[in-house]
Amino acid sequence: xxxxxxxxxxxxAPPAERFVCxxxxxxxTIERMTRGAAFAIISxxxxxxxxxxxxxxxxxxxxxxxxxxxxxxxxxGEADPGEVPPLSQAELFDxxxxxxxxxxxxxxxxxxxxxxxxxxxxxxxxxxAAAARKTWEDAxxxxxxATLELRRRRLAKLRQPAPEEAPPEAPED
Length: 173
Ligand SMILES: [Zn+2]
Fold this sequence. Notes:
Blueprint: H1 9-12, E1 16-20, E2 27-32, E3 39-45, E4 71-72, H2 89-93, H3 101-159
Antiparallel strand pairs: 1-2, 1-4, 2-3
Residues 21, 23-24, 26, 63, 65, 67 line the site of zinc ion.
């Protein structure tokens, strides 16, 4: 029995939450700790990066300027827990990276050498095949000639009467 284990995205990485102070507009993006009311600061907006944020009664961050509890930012809402943001084609295939001209050229060189090798193998195989065909045709020719010669001798024997039974009135031509 095969059991596929699906790990919810929320377990792999807790969803980030963004809070904004309605008074001064400073913001903070946090990731809640698994236990307790603590949180880790991911980024700070509108305040120095090393700003420390207090924790309110609800476990939400407090404004460092003393404006009280900050509110969840409705505009920059993060994905729902368990929802995996879809990857774009550019992310999947590295299309966002600058084109690697040197790597592409070296790959072309490598492929050219490979094609050349296969061409020489095909050429050698062609010569070998021609030699094998010649051997086959020579043998077939020898067989054909031998068969015809033996048939000729057999028919000649049939036409030739045995010497002791040869009637005198039937001379050899
Ligand atoms: Zn504030």
